[in-house]
Amino acid sequence: MKDSLGRTIRVLRMGRSTRERLNGAPREAGEVHSAYARTLNLLWHDGRLLTLHGPGPLLAPFAAAVDHLPGGLGPGMRAWREGEKIRLGPFLLGWEQGAAVETRLRPEEDGARLLLTVLASSRPAPPAAGLFSPGGRTAQRRLDHGIRERDARAFVEGAAGLIGLGEGLTPAGDDCLVGALAVLSRHAATWLAEHAEVRTALASASERGTTTLGREFLLHALGGSFSEPILRLIQARSAAEAVEGIEDLGRMGASSGADTLWGMRLALEALSP
Amino acid sequence: MSPETIRSLVKPSAYQDSVTLLLLARQLRSGPGVVEAAALMATPSNRDLLEQSGLLTAEAAKAGSNDLVIAVRAESAAAAAVALAESEAFLGAKRKRLEDSGRALPRTLESARRHLPGANLALISVPGAFAALEAKKALRLGLHVMLFSDNVGLEDEVALKGLAVQKGLLMMGPDCGTAILNGVPLGFANAVPRGRIGLVSASGTGLQQVTALLASQGEGVSQAIGVGGRDLSEAVGGLMTFQALDALAADPTTEIIVMIGKPPAPAVRARVEARLRAAGKPCVLALLGQGVKEGRDATVHAVATLEDAAWAALAMLEGRPYIPQPFSIPAMELRECVEEFCRALRREDGAVRALYAGGTLAHEAVLILEPLLGPIATNLRPGSGGRHRVTDLGADEYTVGRAHPMLDATVRVEEIRKAAQDPDVAVILLDVVLGHGAAPDPAGDVAAAIEAARATAKMAGRGLAVVASVIGTAGDPQDLAAQCARLEAAGVWVLPSNAQAVRAAACIAGGEPVLARLLEGRP
């Protein structure tokens, strides 16, 4: 696919919904939101983010892994649809041969005990300090109560207290909440489905309550979609898979992985009888 | 009015990862004249955090969730401006710095060990839930551990100390704030010379008080080993105390051993005393508790206060007997001071309000005050009551979400203000703790509040005495003499030890009967 100038970028893997968004892009597809050494975030025409990163597991449910990341792109640079490609400055992004993977979590009532056991005996890096601020502690207690008692109101109050809280590219509280939502999407999906108000309230709270990137992760989590490291961990079938998953997730970001694991553990403990 | 300046820098749509922001905040806080600093995305939750920390500017309040806020509270506008300019340089230089160094900052104990292969001790300060795991990892790597973190479970503590004993390592803590090993101060510790006295302590500020007093007489420390406040409990059984005592017994530079703590569980106490006697060196035992008897046998001298521990150890070194004295200033001079303060109160008696940063110093205050003034209300002993009150401001209820009072005087300043408004309060009693890790100007942090409190009382037609001890040495970064002078300029009576400050407060509040009782040596 690479053209002679080496300026064609090939998508290797993407979520199914990401493929649909690429397929459905209009002429004015979007613009560069932020550019880093390892990721390029595009603000898509639908008002949501679409992230490109290098080869490997999808680090966000709204990401596409590409064979190489284009350099020299900056915020505000427009993305145009050109046939079956997206033009980003001098680069052309092609996705037709990329593999579409499922980023939605499969609900399953069993299996929580295995993950909790492995998580409790693992040694992940410490989560960010912001989670241990007074507001962070209160929010976690409320979240725990909401899950334990299946009290949607308490859950929303706790979750709202975590949104946008703490350090980082995605604030620590967002990562923690995404971890908790992953556990609930897997092991308490029925309860979540019965309480549509949770999704509505948290989607609303995230609108101004956190960073654009943090909000994107939350909205996907509320819809049951997660990054591949989270999916692999939470769908682990054996202790060995779970241990490997914890190590993989723990390496994500500066503290994002650790914060997500913290939220997972909180939810698993609250769900355990 | 506070002379401090708050400035902020808002960087729209600027994302930085947690490590960068933490490093930046740490660098800012260590800058000259900077009191507090933060670097966070300006989400509503984080703006609340900034407001709670006194760092929210109007500019930051208007920032959006995708904006990075760097906020600084400094002693002057110039210091704040310098700090913010440095933050720009930090962010700009970050990538280059990492590339030039050819390595990333270690994120795990294992990688830190690779960067520093000669290290033999890990100082761990992470949230309690993870502290035990990190400590275990360090012990397995063959490192001694100083575990600064609290909120570590008792079972974890026993398991960690058991592992340390098996491996012949020190497991100091959890909740260990002070140690001095091979002359290196760890955590909150004072600048003391190397010397002949080795200490084992279940109390951080207790250890600071004793070592600072020794330093004031030119004597130094061979090793000062913290063991954590629960080590002498029945559950832990003194595992690390025994390990530390054995280490000091075997240490050729240690001539005298001083042990500091609260009274152990009875079963543990007998073993502690036996181990002290078997150490083969003279020992001083300072167990601060009601009913603990002072006395001396062939090798162990039991004392009642931290000050007595220091002076008894010195006396042992010099081969002379030690007789405790309530004050180090002559009786005549003491009486004049007390009478002057009492006259200024313009009343017969009044209550003592003790506001402590050091938990053990507060505990010692209760033990000294209660026999002199009657029942003491204190948060150290739930359910206690009395006219006089001793508050440990380092207790959990005062430190949730904020720094310890040895670092942040906000809570103490507020309590001083409240005490000044209470017509029953005649004496405010304080400790001011200096040393590495402590606030850069602890006396300055409370001096203005003390002056305001005395003015408040005066306007209400009352007097208000303020008595303090400064725990520090001439070598401390805060400058002991300057700290004492700052307090004295605010009208504070500064005494050389906590025990003496407590007794002085009791004399002012209780008047002649208490003074006479102390001077006559009646218990």
Key terms:
heterodimer, A: 273 residues, eight-stranded mixed barrel, 9 strands, 46% helix, disordered N terminus, B: 523 residues, alpha/beta, Gyrase A, domain 2, Rossmann fold, six-stranded mixed beta sheet, six-stranded parallel beta sheet, 20 strands, globular
Your description of this structure?
The complex is a heterodimer of chains A (273) and B (523). Chain A has 273 residues and is an alpha/beta fold. Chain A has helices at 16-23, 112-121, 134-148, 152-162, 172-187, 189-194, 196-209, 212-222, 228-234, 239-250, 256-271; strands spanning 8-15, 28-35, 39-44, 49-53, 63-66, 78-82, 85-88, 91-94, 99-101. Chain A has 2 domains: 8-101, no CATH class; 112-271, no CATH class. Helix content of chain A is 46%, strand content 17%. Chain A has an 8-stranded mixed β-barrel. In chain A, helix 2 packs across helix 10 (239-250), helix 7 packs antiparallel against helix 8 and helix 10 (239-250) crosses helix 11. The N and C termini of chain A lie far apart (53 Å). With 523 residues, chain B is an alpha/beta fold. Chain B has 3 domains: 5-101, Gyrase A, domain 2; 176-318, Succinyl-CoA synthetase domains (Rossmann fold, 3-Layer(aba) Sandwich), CATH 3.40.50; 331-519, Rossmann fold. Helices cover 44% and strands 20% of the residues of chain B. Chain B has helices at 18-29, 44-52, 58-61, 77-101, 109-115, 128-140, 154-167, 204-216, 239-250, 266-277, 306-318, 331-345, 359-373, 396-399, 410-421, 442-459, 480-489, 498-510, 512-519, and strands spanning 5-11, 34-41, 68-74, 121-124, 144-147, 171-172, 178-181, 184-187, 194-201, 221-226, 256-261, 283-287, 295-296, 300-303, 351-356, 376-378, 388-392, 425-433, 465-471, 492-495. In chain B, the strands form 5 sheets. A 6-stranded mixed sheet of chain B has the order 10-9-11-12-14-13, with helices on both faces. The mean pLDDT of chain B is 89. At the A-B interface, helix 3 and helix 8 of A face helix 1, helix 2 and helix 6 of B.
